């Protein structure tokens, strides 16, 4: 009888341990982020309101293609095979460049003030993030796609930039929910967020969303912040979850893809939201339908990098 009770107790303890490990995601390459832990050099993800460190994504794979960025500085970068990503990866492999005009503008602003933090929303494989981290500014790169995050982390490691970077593996939105990610053939850079729905596609990618405001739980934004945002028409929804962030952080510049919002209510919301915090668009006129694909919003005293 005592032997049976002992076996029962051991079984209960074993299954309790298994439940605990699953509950804390220890069996899925994640461990809970503890208050006081450094964020530097880590991939962090928020799941059901808790922050975790993802240790399993930062490992180079056979489909990580090593290339070199040749812009403001020289940085190694892992991209995709051109059979998967023809545009962004293809151009970096061929020329070592991507959106060099925008990178140059951001680079010059950050170079003028080493205390500025660069927040890269929709980082993709990290052309912006790696360039700014190599410059020496602190960088927070945010991306929802695990294949992007893995490449970005491998690039961070190979360039020894762990003390300058951290990576957030979530989508940004205005509510906490699960969303799926849509992708275009041969264009990983066109990955977009869509609402969850019934789908017979077993390859659908599902990710938890966070709010911009949630970043305040992780980071101490004492200095100013420069933001680049490229989330494929989801920009307005990202800003709807950013009110506390902008109220508590000195955002000095926002570079944003604006093409999908020209002449729309979402565009008007974006402009009015940013203007409330002193950020004005650098454009030649007030007619949003004529604005360029990407628009930079700055505070009047911000050096624009021209």
Description:
- This protein is of the alpha/beta class.
- It has two domains: 1-32; 35-298, 3-Layer(aba) Sandwich (Rossmann fold).
- The protein contains eight helices and 16 strands.
- The protein has helices at residues 2-23, 88-95, 100-111, 127-135, 146-158, 235-240, 243-248, 265-276, and strands spanning 30-32, 43-47, 50-54, 65-70, 74-79, 117-121, 139-143, 165-169, 171-173, 178-184, 187-195, 205-211, 225-229, 251-257, 280-281, 294-298.
- The strands form three sheets. Strands 1-3-2-8-7-6-13-14-16-15 form a ten-stranded mixed beta sheet, sandwiched between helices.
- Helix 4 (127-135) links the parallel strand 6 (117-121) and strand 7.
- The longest helix has 22 residues, at 2-23.
- It is globular.
- The relative contact order is 0.12.
The gist of it:
It contains eight helices and 16 strands. The protein is α/β, with parallel strands linked by helices and 306 residues long. Mean pLDDT is 86; it is low at 17-25, 189-193 and 196-202.
Helices and strands in order:
Blueprint: H1 2-23, E1 30-32, E2 43-47, E3 50-54, E4 65-70, E5 74-79, H2 88-95, H3 100-111, E6 117-121, H4 127-135, E7 139-143, H5 146-158, E8 165-169, E9 171-173, E10 178-184, E11 187-195, E12 205-211, E13 225-229, H6 235-240, H7 243-248, E14 251-257, H8 265-276, E15 280-281, E16 294-298
Helix pairs in contact: 3-4
Total individual domains: 2
CATH superfamily of the largest domain: Vaccinia Virus protein VP39
Largest sheet: 10 strands, mixed
Helix content: 25-40%
Strand arrangement across the biggest beta sheet? 1-3-2-8-7-6-13-14-16-15
Q: Which stretches are low in confidence, meaning pLDDT under 50 for 5 or more residues running?
A: 17-25, 189-193, 196-202
Measured by DSSP, the beta-strand proportion falls in 25-35%
| Helix segment tally | 8
Fill in the CATH topology of the largest domain.
Rossmann fold
How does the helix and strand content classify structurally? alpha/beta
Mean residue pLDDT? 86
Using only C-alpha atoms, the radius of gyration works out to: 21 Å
CATH class descriptor of the largest domain:
Alpha Beta
**CATH arch. level architecture of the largest domain:** 3-Layer(aba) Sandwich
CA-CA gap between termini? 83 Å
- What spatial form do the alpha-carbon principal axes imply? globular
Output the helix-strand order.
HEEEEEHHEHEHEEEEEEHHEHEE
Number of strands: 16
């Amino acid at each position: 009888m005592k032997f049976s009770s002992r076996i029962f107790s051991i079984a209960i303890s074993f299954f309790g341990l298994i439940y605990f490990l699953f509950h804390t995601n220890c069996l899925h390459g994640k461990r809970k982020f503890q208050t006081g832990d450094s964020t530097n050099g880590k991939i962090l993800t928020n799941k059901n309101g808790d922050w975790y460190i993802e240790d399993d994504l930062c490992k180079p794979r056979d489909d990580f293609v090593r290339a070199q960025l040749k812009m403001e500085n020289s940085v190694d970068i892992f991209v995709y095979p051109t059979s998967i990503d023809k545009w962004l990866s293809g151009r970096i492999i061929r020329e070592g460049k991507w959106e060099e005009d925008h990178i140059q503008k951001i680079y010059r602003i950050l170079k003028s003030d080493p205390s500025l933090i660069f927040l890269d929303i929709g980082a993709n494989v990290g052309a912006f993030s790696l360039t700014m981290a190599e410059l020496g500014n602190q960088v927070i790169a945010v991306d929802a796609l695990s294949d992007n995050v893995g490449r970005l982390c491998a690039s961070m490691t190979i360039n020894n930039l762990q003390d300058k970077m951290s990576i957030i593996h979530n989508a940004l939105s205005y509510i906490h929910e699960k969303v799926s990610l849509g992708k275009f053939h041969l264009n990983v850079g066109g990955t977009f967020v869509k609402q969850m729905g019934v789908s017979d596609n077993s390859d659908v990618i599902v990710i938890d969303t966070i709010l911009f405001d949630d970043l305040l739980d992780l980071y101490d934004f004492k200095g100013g912040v420069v933001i680049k945002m490229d989330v494929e028409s989801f920009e307005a929804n990202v800003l709807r979850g950013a009110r506390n962030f902008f109220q508590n952080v000195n955002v000095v510049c926002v570079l944003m893809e604006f093409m999908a919002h020209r002449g729309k209510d979402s565009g008007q919301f974006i402009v009015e939201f940013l203007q409330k915090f002193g950020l004005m668009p650098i454009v030649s006129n007030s007619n949003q339908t004529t604005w360029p694909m990407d628009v930079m919003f700055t505070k009047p005293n911000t050096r624009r990098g021209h």
